[in-house]
Amino acid sequence: MKNTDLECEVKIDRCAERSVDIVDIVGIIGRDPEKVKTDSRKVRKGDMFVAIKGTFNDGHDFISDVVKSGAAVVVCDHAPDDMLDNGGETRIAIVNDTKKAMGAIAKNIFNDPVSKLKMYGVTGTNGKTTSVFLTHKILSLAGVPSGIVSTVYNITKDEYKVKATMTTPDIVALYGFLSAMRANHKDAAVVEISSHALSQERVCGLELDSAIFTNITPEHLDYHKTMENYLNDKMKIFNMLRKDGIGVMNVDDDTIRKVACKNTVGRTITFGIDNNADVMASDIRLSASSTEFTVQSKDFKSFHVKTKLIGMHNVYNILGVTASLLYTGVDSAFIKKGCELFHSVPGRLSQISTNAPFKVFVDYAHTPDALERTLRCMRSLSEKKLIAVFGCGGNRDRTKRPVMGKLAAEICDQVYVTSDNPRNERPEDIINEIEKGMTGKKNYSLITKREDAIAKAIKLASQGDIIVIAGKGHENYQIIGEKMLHFDDKEVASLVLREMGYAVRNK
Predict the structure, then answer these.
(1) How many CA atoms lie within 13 A of 18 on its CB side?
(2) Distance between CA atoms of 397 and 381, rounded to whole angstroms?
(3) DSSP state for residue 239 in the 8-state scheme
(4) Is domain 350-499 in CATH 3.90.190.20, yes or no?
(5) Domain 111-341 falls under CATH 3.40.1190.10
(6) pTM score > 0.90 for this model?
(7) Which of 96, 432, 435, 470 has the highest local Cβ count within 10 Å?
(8) Which of 221-230, 246-255, 272-281, 329-338 has the lowest mean pLDDT?
(9) Distance, C-alpha 56 to centroid of its chain
(10) Which segments of 327-446 does DSSP mark as H helices, in order?
């Protein structure tokens, strides 16, 4: 049996010149995913070590260590000469690309669940999670049981939710989720795909029926370095399309519109409002409680949508999902119904249900673009003052800090700049960098403790005001130094409201 997932020859014990395929490599560890390691420190006797070249370390530098640890097999693209003849205790597999090999290994271990699933992928700077959850909702209504892999949580069985630790897990864990979906009779999977996962080729081997590119604005430039690199990494999602797959692109995003023609895999389907597209929205009506518009398409009948999702950014999210589903065979009646029944994703403009005379929202917006969209949306819907509470994460892109400070001060009536996840930076230093963008403004306060900033904002709110607590959304922790401490914006805000004598109806 020849392996078709690796466009390279695989050799075990190269000095013996004996060629085998991925099936044979996986057989060495008994197709046990727990035995596949990329961290040399975790290798135990009988494990497989795949040497990956990462941002800071190269696994090839630790081959000698894993051999001493008793690894059964090492997968690498090169190895020290003295490792190639080690008495047979460790077998060395030489491949052209260890990242591609990792995908092929995972696919084989889990018996290729991708080939048995309808696969939907979503990437973009903002809107990924909402698009994933809305797609899942509509597919369920259409009689297509589906699972989810997302930033918030993963669903592989019924509606049982497993908290996620990262947006897109490593390829072995990802295949594990997909395999569990098949075992639980799911017919489709909806996967949130980060730029890091695409850049690091952590999704090698995945094949998509549909790939949505929501938008792109500056983010993660501490990692990608330039917007060109960031865009090129995002565009890699279209290389994952099946031959009859569709690439769904937001042509109202100037950057995406310029590269839409470069998608040469599958069929390109566009969506937008201002620019001519395959799927468009018209007659848009926004309010603080709902959004209504008409979906128009070149190839399908128009239909009216009314949803509890608020804001223009959610019109775009719905259009992207609509384009993806219409062109993969889902009837518009299910899309319409799904939009009507869908409430929100945890931490995405999630309103705290209370009898207070003002509104309190918790949102995950942690990029300049996301924060601006959220605040401008709330600005247009607020009866009186707009109040924001936000900070920026430590050990992350520092260039966005003053930009976010400037935006918040310009859009809001009052801003409370506070701590987010400071990690190994001093919260005060991060706050001071945010403040640099607020020069000339007097409508802000610096409050280091996040709980104090939230309490201050709520206690000073009046009738008709809107408060947006941004940056952490669904997260129920705060990372300070090396510690992850429990902290939930919604819990803190709800406690303050109750102490003020208001009823809070959220669970």
Answers:
(1) 8
(2) 31
(3) G
(4) yes
(5) yes
(6) no
(7) 470
(8) 221-230
(9) 23
(10) 332-341, 368-381, 400-411, 427-435
